Amino acid sequence: MLVLGTLQWGPSHGYGIVQSLRVSSGAVLQVETGSLYPALHRMERQGWVKSEWKLTESNQRAKYYRITAAGKRQLASDQSRWEQMVQAMGLVLNGTPEAGEL
Question: CATH topology for 2-96?
Fold first, then answer.
């Protein structure tokens, strides 16, 4: 979800995705390339991202990833499920009575 969220702002290469996640999370999220690239390849097989080789700002060849329409739909679905999960966790952690106690 976070990778797709990063790509919704525009295409990026792997290192750019890692840096974007680190910076936007205040350095809390440290994504390792060893887990990023398998995830990107899996998302590409699922049709959520497309890739193409381009030159970086420093004239190095890198694979750039961009989110597809299917990826945008998946991101919206993931965000909805995440919001439900956060709400449910808040109910539990804030001591909301169980249904039987109401």
Answer: Arc Repressor Mutant, subunit A (1.10.10)
| Residue count (the chain) | 102
CA angle centred on 18, ends 50 and 16, rounded to 5°:
60
Structure token pair of residue 51: 């890739």
Q: pLDDT digits over 1-54, tens only?
A: 999 999 999 999 999 999 999 999 999 999 998 999 999 999 999 999 999 999
Phi, then psi, of 66 in degrees rounded to 5: -135, 150
For the chain, the domains span 2-96
d(CA 49, CA 4): 8
pTM to 2 decimals? 0.85
E strands present in 23-88: 49-55, 61-67
Cβ 7 vs Cβ 74: under 8 Å: no
Q: Identify the residue whose tokens are 């804030």.
A: 94
Instruction: Decide if 62 contacts 40 (C-beta within 8 A).
Output: no
